[in-house]
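Summary: Need help interpreting a holo structure output

Steps to reproduce:
1. Submit the protein chain below together with the SMILES for NAP.
2. Request a joint structure prediction with the ligand placed.
3. Inspect the structure token block that comes back.

Expected: a single structure record containing both the chain and the bound molecule.
Actual: see attached output.

Input attached:
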Amino acid sequence: MPLPQHTLMDSHVVVVGGGSGIGRAVAGVASNLGARVTIAGRAAAKLEAAASEMDGPVATAPVDMTDEGAVEGWAAALGPVDHLVITASSAAHGPFAALETGKVRAMFDAKFFGPYVAARAVLPRIANGGSITLFSGVLSRRPGLNCSGLGAVNGAVEALTRALALELGPNIRVNCVSPGMVRSEAYAHLAPETRDHMYRSTGGSLPLKRVGEVGEIAEAVLFLMTSPYTTGVVLDIDGGHMVRQYATR
Ligand SMILES: NC(=O)c1ccc[n+]([C@@H]2O[C@H](COP(=O)([O-])OP(=O)(O)OC[C@H]3O[C@@H](n4cnc5c(N)ncnc54)[C@H](OP(=O)(O)O)[C@@H]3O)[C@@H](O)[C@H]2O)c1
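--- attached output ---
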């Protein structure tokens, strides 16, 4: 049997969140494989900078996913789409007893309702055989202190993935990537020494003894976009976070 070919040649891949981090890596891989790529996010200048660093031509389509009215017009301007990948999100951390509800609601707006609205708006334009890939994270099933809201929103994204896979099959496959900690701009707000300590201490607790790189997550997205018999899956790409030891021996 011949080896399966990952091909995206001439397909249109839209990456919401493609201006940085994992989304930018997904856009780069897709572009290298011959896809026509469109990246979206709120900051137009960031999108232009990311697009200019890619080998192939990459279009930019700025949008704030939390603005439902704007998302409709944005989706209409995309034209036909083969694969929609949504990495865009924001996070809110803090003790359950102290974190303001408004911050948790804003996070649900960005990480759950944003992808929900964007996926629904793009859906009529996704070709048969196409896919939607959403993003959750390890905290849904391996909770962390001060991350109750983030764990909950990840769980909501995973539940949505399974429901959409059922409802949108057989024409459109829907999957979710659950990354562990990955070096990305998501942590750019931290002081470098704080960030390095976090990477070292989290990485050291994992079977693979390091945090992930954005390209390693992009590989998983490539698989989900091109694997014709994969739907309804939450794919853990986390260096073994799900099986890490709780206490050192
Ligand atoms: N990195 C990790 O360690 C890690 C761990 C677990 C899960 N994850 C998940 O993996 C996904 C990707 O993370 P990442 O590290 O690549 O994050 P990132 O580098 O911060 O990228 C997120 C992107 O989303 C865009 N964005 C944010 N809010 C948006 C909105 N309302 N509308 C449109 N675009 C928006 C941002 O651009 P603008 O600000 O310009 O809009 C940014 O380019 C996220 O779902 C994250 O929760 C990441």
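--- end attachment ---

Reviewer comment: The longest strand covers residues 126-135. The mean pLDDT is 96.
Status: needs-info
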